[in-house]
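User: Hey, my collaborator sent me this sequence without any context and asked if I could get a structure. I don't really work with proteins. Can you help?
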Amino acid sequence: MKQYKSGQYISQGYYKSFQPSLINKQLYVDNMEVLDLLSQADREIGRLDMYSKYIPNIDLFISMHVLKEATQSSKIEGTQTNLEEALLEKEDVPLDKRDDWEEVQNYTKAMEWAVNELEKLPFSSRLIRKTHNILLQGVRGERKQPGEFRNSQNWIGGATINDALFIPPVHTSVPELMSDIEEFLHNKEIYIPELLKIGLVHYQFETIHPFLDGNGRVGRLLIPLYLVSKGILKKPILYLSDFFEKNRKLYYENLMLVRDKSNVSQWFKFFLVGIIETAKSGITTFDNILQLQKQVETSIQKLGSRAANAKKIVDYLYNHPMINAEKVSEVAGISMPSAYKLIVDLEKLKILREVTGGQRGRVYLFDDYLKLFR
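Assistant: No problem. I've predicted the 3D structure and written it out in structure-token form, which is a compact way to encode the shape of the chain:
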């Protein structure tokens, strides 16, 4: 890919911003390592996508995949909320952790909205801006132009622009650069494999940094959204934030390698390894879920006449693996005394585990299921 030029640094007086080249052009891939990894990535995504087709209640599990992605993606930005905390109701979250909790919930809402909207809206700047707007509602970045491209200079790393690690392009060029991304994604006259296309778009988006806040989270959201929009995945079940978080130093180094050396091949290799590893991990998780489902179904049959109500609770737990007695009563449509008896049954079967240790306000986890996502 010797013909690829990433852009250039431009003096803005006392600092240099990076002006990326437009990407809406044919890119010729001549690196055999990239092509080999691309072939592997295609195979693994195909295997992962099969679960969307053959697991009849796949939607039960999607919300947990999205929630895990929300906590991991937000963690990269410094938000400290784990899966258990993310499952709490707002009033149960300590005040000092509520902002972090809100950011994770917003990420989940933004992803769910965007996936549903793809049925009506094309993958576009409009979709990206609206997703960003949901992401920043009522949280720390709410005063940083939610849903609008920035109208001032931003920077990455460093306390001030003077010691920044990287300075994105000037704000006046953001609309043109984002339009270029949109044209590139919908250009039917150039052929680039879809995984390389979204890999290049992720790099370009992070380099443009079009918003004042939330760029990392939106940039990571774009990957599963694009794969769903193209029918490569039927459901949003592939998220790279876990891989990026585990390899954070390499992630930033590879982005900088493209900017400084135009070495897009190395970025593609890193990105494709991420897809391969993440897809394999997703396949393992789904296999483990299926095994757990069988075990749980076998266990609850021991409850005889109470098995039907236990099944209602278990189905609810696949979506929300944290529950209390009031919710058990509501979901199963039974009285509170019956709900407490059912909880005792589910504890004996080791399906539920009480986590507060208190006598009042008890909360129960579907622990074996939650472990699959940790």
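In plain terms: Residues 264-300 form the longest helix (37 residues). You can pass these tokens on to your collaborator as they are.
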